Amino acid sequence: MKISILGSGMVGQALAGKLAEIGQDVMVGTRNPGKIADWLAKNPKVKTGSASESAAHGEIIINALTGTSTLDMLKSIGEAHLNGKILIDIANPLDFSKGMPPTLFVSNTDSLGEQVQRALPQVKVVKTLNTLSAHLMVNPRSLADGDHTLFLSGNDDEAKARVTSLLTEWFGWRDILDIGDITSARGTEALLLLWISMSTKLGTSNMQIKIVR
Ligand SMILES: NC(=O)c1ccc[n+]([C@@H]2O[C@H](COP(=O)([O-])OP(=O)(O)OC[C@H]3O[C@@H](n4cnc5c(N)ncnc54)[C@H](OP(=O)(O)O)[C@@H]3O)[C@@H](O)[C@H]2O)c1
Predict the structure, then answer these.
(1) 93 C-alpha vs ligand 1 centroid, how far in Å?
(2) pTM score
(3) Are strands 124-128 and 86-89 parallel, antiparallel or unpaired?
């Protein structure tokens, strides 16, 4: 499958590396491929291009941009390359401008996921993978044999079902919980505040949340 990954940071690299390894046709959209030249040398199957080239390539788009750059970058790509496609939105609305810990630049009555969906009404936005560390996104079974929970939000039920089966097939996710329409992203984005406290206290990002029914 042709997959577009927007952003070449820790998340973009984790997703692109794993997806290329399992035979997917991945193009990372980046402003500066030279910045990741060493990583690309170790992951020769990953293609790079501009954000627009990457979005044009992808049947599915994965947003691994910073929260602060997400809306401008998606608007600059333009609807023609995005409309009708599933956009897996991993970005969190973190504001580091006042140092650590970050705050949320949108919360409570709105979310970044909703802002993206409003900006691109013809795109099927599915918010997921944003509540855990990059290494666990693509290798959930490395922790507690995958016995932990991934949340999923979005307005399009078919798109959520497709993303659920892709995450299971690609990475081996076992417990994916559809928590509702895109407004439910308010909760998972705000969960980052709890995540940061837990990670600081435990001294690790190798941890996850499990919903016990
Ligand atoms: N790191 C994690 O474990 C983790 C976990 C859960 C969710 N997330 C969320 O996932 C997203 C990606 O995380 P990350 O750690 O990979 O982020 P990151 O390295 O800080 O940034 C991701 C990419 O955003 C692009 N970017 C940054 N500033 C930009 C600007 N002004 N204009 C256009 N593009 C810009 C850059 O892409 P190029 O330089 O390639 O153009 C950069 O590689 C974030 O929203 C984060 O909150 C991260």
Answers:
(1) 11
(2) 0.98
(3) parallel
